[in-house]
Automatic annotation (TrEMBL):
<dbReference type="GO" id="GO:0006355">
    <property type="term" value="P:regulation of DNA-templated transcription"/>
</dbReference>
<dbReference type="InterPro" id="IPR001789">
    <property type="entry name" value="Sig_transdc_resp-reg_receiver"/>
</dbReference>
<dbReference type="Pfam" id="PF00196">
    <property type="entry name" value="GerE"/>
</dbReference>
<dbReference type="InterPro" id="IPR058245">
    <property type="entry name" value="NreC/VraR/RcsB-like_REC"/>
</dbReference>
<feature type="region of interest" description="Disordered">
    <location>
        <begin position="221"/>
        <end position="245"/>
    </location>
</feature>
<keyword id="KW-0805">Transcription regulation</keyword>
<dbReference type="InterPro" id="IPR000792">
    <property type="entry name" value="Tscrpt_reg_LuxR_C"/>
</dbReference>
<feature type="domain" description="HTH luxR-type">
    <location>
        <begin position="147"/>
        <end position="218"/>
    </location>
</feature>
<feature type="domain" description="Response regulatory">
    <location>
        <begin position="2"/>
        <end position="126"/>
    </location>
</feature>
<dbReference type="GO" id="GO:0003677">
    <property type="term" value="F:DNA binding"/>
</dbReference>
<dbReference type="InterPro" id="IPR036388">
    <property type="entry name" value="WH-like_DNA-bd_sf"/>
</dbReference>
<dbReference type="InterPro" id="IPR039420">
    <property type="entry name" value="WalR-like"/>
</dbReference>
<dbReference type="InterPro" id="IPR011006">
    <property type="entry name" value="CheY-like_superfamily"/>
</dbReference>
<dbReference type="GO" id="GO:0000160">
    <property type="term" value="P:phosphorelay signal transduction system"/>
</dbReference>
<dbReference type="Pfam" id="PF00072">
    <property type="entry name" value="Response_reg"/>
</dbReference>
<keyword id="KW-0804">Transcription</keyword>
<dbReference type="InterPro" id="IPR016032">
    <property type="entry name" value="Sig_transdc_resp-reg_C-effctor"/>
</dbReference>
Length: 245
């Protein structure tokens, strides 16, 4: 694959580049969001586009949301450009903005996920092929902050199922993970969608919309902080390489 990385940290950018090149990928790196947009903005199309873009959220000059805004802008120009966003923290309001439109080929992963090479490569491949990946730790953080959006009506098992849905797992993969029958999972998914006001239909992306409810309705005034996984929290398990959406 042809991969573009936008990351201001030289160590992380070079480390990712070496990792991906060792896997046989062609990598181009940029230290700022402006350079990323200049390289892939207006006038770039078709075969000139990379297979996937990996970008940080906080980049120069203000180190706030330049990377995210660049991602949103590029998606407005190239609707199907796969983008995987890396963040040090759970940037709740930024994640909501990123997933406001078409969610195919989008991912939001915490940077410490990169420490697990296989899981990072798996997430990258899934985004590049049109999948949606939301880090389960992001989901757990947002779930803990959410109030009065219908999520409080979910049972502990339904929350666990929703956390696995956020990882991009199919009903079959969820059943295997929880060691339950497929009909039981289907019943939980139907209940989740109904409680959140998202009745199930032929649109598979209703599943993603259920997860985005967490992103959309959490308190936007919350200050971002280091990720802390609640002891025994649901939806925090890391995806296994054997399960695919």
């Amino acid at each position: 694959m042809r991969i573009v990385i936008a990351e201001d940290s030289v160590l992380l950018r070079d480390g990712l580049s070496r990792l991906l090149e060792a896997e046989g990928h062609q990598v181009t790196g940029y230290p700022t969001a402006d350079e990323l947009v200049a390289a892939l903005g207006t006038g770039t199309a078709g075969d000139d586009l990379p297979d996937v873009v990996v970008t940080d959220v906080r980049m120069p000059p203000s180190h706030t949301d330049e990377g995210l805004r660049a991602a949103v802008h590029l998606r407005s120009l190239h609707r199907r450009l796969p983008i995987l966003v890396l963040s040090q923290y759970v940037e709740q309001r930024y994640a909501a903005e990123l997933f406001a439109g078409d969610v195919r080929g989008l991912g939001y992963v915490l940077k410490d996920r990169v420490a697990d090479v296989e899981e990072f490569l798996d997430a990258l491949q899934r985004v590049a092929t049109g999948g949606t990946v939301i880090d389960p730790e992001v989901v757990a953080q947002i779930l803990a902050r959410t109030r009065s959006t219908g999520l409080e009506t979910l049972t502990p098992r339904e929350r666990e199922v929703l956390g696995l849905m956020a990882e991009g797992r199919s009903n079959t993969a969820i059943a295997e993970r929880l060691v339950v029958g497929l009909p039981a999972v289907e019943k939980h998914v139907t209940s989740i969608l109904t409680k959140l006001g998202l009745p199930p239909d032929a649109d598979d992306h209703r599943r993603v919309l259920a997860v985005l409810r967490w992103l959309e309705h959490g308190p936007t005034a919350a200050q971002p902080g280091p990720v802390v996984t609640p002891p025994g929290g649901v939806g925090t398990g890391r995806p296994t390489n054997g399960a695919r959406a």
